[in-house]
Amino acid sequence: MVVDDHRxxxxxxxxxxxxxxxxxxxxxxxxxxxxxxxxxxxxEVCLLGTAAPAEPGAFDPVTKVKRERPQVAVVVLGPVxxxxxxxxxxxxGASGYVRHDExxxxxxxxxxxxxAGEAAVAPQLLxxxxxxxxxPSAQPDDEAQRLxxxxxxxxxxxxxxxxxxxxxxxxxxxxxIAPSTAxxxxxxxxxxxxxxxxxxxxxxxxxTGLLDRAGPLNPGPA
Length: 222
Hints:
Blueprint: E1 2-3, H1 7-19, E2 27-28, H2 34-41, E3 45-49, H3 60-68, E4 73-78, H4 83-91, E5 96-99, H5 104-115, H6 123-134, H7 143-150, H8 153-163, H9 168-175, H10 179-193, H11 198-208, H12 210-214
Parallel strand pairs: 1-2, 1-3, 3-4, 4-5
């Protein structure tokens, strides 16, 4: 069963799995009630999408499914996670974590591992997750500072401009770079932040206070 708030993603992934010989009970796109759908259908494996693994309560559906249907293996589909996000997924009872941009072969491997009772996650991600579970940080992370540490000064400027609503042309003009270079910077920012769109990046920056930490923009070359 494939459950994701983005219907096109859920249906596309379900179709790809069917073509590879898997029986898909349902491809659903609920705004809420994901756990209830999975509990009602009781698949062997559920691919459960989340857009924000760091958000409080992101894995509550996993906890509910495992409480009501412990035999269902839940594999989370999400953006590039932090070790804490992976740890939270496993702590909730997930059998694995697969990135949204993973190839269908990788998703299929995760399904097979989950069905076999194995951890369906890349080894390096699993190592970081278990490290976080065994040795949790003494203090809560400063999310804004953590995100700033992932970005170069130029990428921070790009993010600020994206949050200000500038398109690629304006970003390029303001920074004195080619539009293709600006586009590359934007894509790197999205990848590092683990988001799928400029709107999501701007929302994340605003929510964490990153924009306040970034300071004013430097004027571009004359």
